[in-house]
Design brief:
The chain is built from four helices and ten strands. It has about 200 residues and is α+β, with helices and mostly antiparallel strands. The chain has one domain: Mannose-Binding Protein A, Chain A, CATH 3.10.100.
Length: about 200
């Protein structure tokens, strides 16, 4: 009898397969029911987690040591932590390059002892956009602090064989570039394996 109940419970209960989307960062409300009013999503606010990261604090963004000095320009986004890996962003490269050159540069670079960097994709670019800043540069908040220059960043997605795609940081959107040879900056990302408080 108990075994039958256990089998029935397992058959009707499914395991969680994901997480609630993060809050957008918008806190200004223009009417009841808009995102600034509801602030739908996970985390206490855009930069504060609802529970501790492995370093024992609720900071969404930390450096690789769990602090907020970012001496090597690596920013760890704990909203992406799945229990074993976490996404890190590198904002220290300010060189504008053609799309292919950006990808080649990132693949061959070592930052903070870490290899395996790549150009961020559209979702990774959108994930750190603070939409409270959508008319004043969506990355213009700590710890990224990227304001009016550069406005456009290459992303690794491409709509066709002849066109590249970039994110518009001033207008919260993606645009298609007519040429892959235009020189734009980008941001690097990589997943880090988390063992205790060590990232590798």
């Amino acid at each position: 009898m108990i075994q039958d109940l256990y089998i029935k419970a397992r058959a009707t209960t499914s395991a969680p397969v994901g997480a609630t989307l993060m809050k957008t960062g918008q806190t200004t409300s223009y009417r009841t029911g808009d995102d600034g009013d509801i602030e739908a999503g996970r985390a206490t606010n855009f930069t504060t987690l609802a529970s501790n990261n492995p370093f024992g604090n609720t900071n969404r963004f930390t450096d690789t040591l769990g602090g907020q000095t970012y001496s090597n320009n690596i920013i760890v986004d704990w909203s992406t932590y799945n229990g074993s890996t976490v996404l890190a962003y590198y904002k220290g490269d300010t060189t504008a390059r053609a799309w292919n050159a950006q990808i080649d540069q990132y693949l061959s670079s070592t930052i903070g002892g870490l290899t395996g960097w790549r150009v961020f994709n559209a979702y990774e670019a959108l994930n750190i956009m603070n939409l409270e800043r959508m008319l004043n540069y969506v990355y213009n908040y700590a710890p990224f602090n990227i304001s009016s220059s550069p406005r456009y960043f290459w992303i690794s997605n491409r709509p066709s064989g002849t066109q590249g795609c970039a994110v518009d940081t001033a207008a919260m959107g993606l645009f298609t570039s007519s040429t892959l040879t235009g020189a734009l900056q980008s941001m690097w990302v990589r997943y880090c394996t988390v063992t205790g408080t060590t990232l590798s």
